[in-house]
Amino acid sequence: MNYLTRDYLNELVYKVNGCAIEVHKALGPGLLECTYHKCMMHELERRDIQFATELSIPIDYKGLQIEADLRCDLLVENTLVVELKSVSNIAPIHIAQLLTYMKLLNQPMGLIINFNCTHIFKEGQRTYVNKLYERIF
Predict the structure, then answer these.
(1) Tell me, what's the pLDDT at 137?
(2) What pairs with residue 43 in β-bridges?
(3) Integer Cα distance of 50 and 15 in angstroms
(4) Which of 69, 82, 112, 120 could be bridged to 74 by S-S, CB 3.0 to 4.6 A?
(5) pTM listed for this prediction
(6) Where are the chain's structural domains?
(7) Cβ contacts of residue 114 below 8 Å, gap of 6+?
(8) Which residues 6+ apart lie within 8 Å of 22 measured at CB?
């Protein structure tokens, strides 16, 4: 993680939010999450932003490998965990899910994007960091 900087991560969040704004502008709120997911993948590809989708998250419990079928919506540039939602409100369980994915994937920053809102930038996205972020200079 030595190549990461806070500026790089903040710029990456900015770019992903730009993709989300573009998708939301074209489609508006009220669709299923899977629709926004497909459109986000297309928008990221159009902008040459690398990502993995539906990434299986490994769980190691005291040396025991557990198949829990956890899936991260997007891992952008092998650095930013992105969870997509289409819900009336982001619930604490959504935040807990993102923070756990960040921990299990050993990533410093995560983003929740909720497409079921009026304005993505104002109310539809939340950025989270963990202790790994504090180590980045």
Answers:
(1) 55
(2) none
(3) 12
(4) 82
(5) 0.91
(6) 6-134
(7) 85, 86, 87, 89, 90, 123, 124, 125
(8) 43
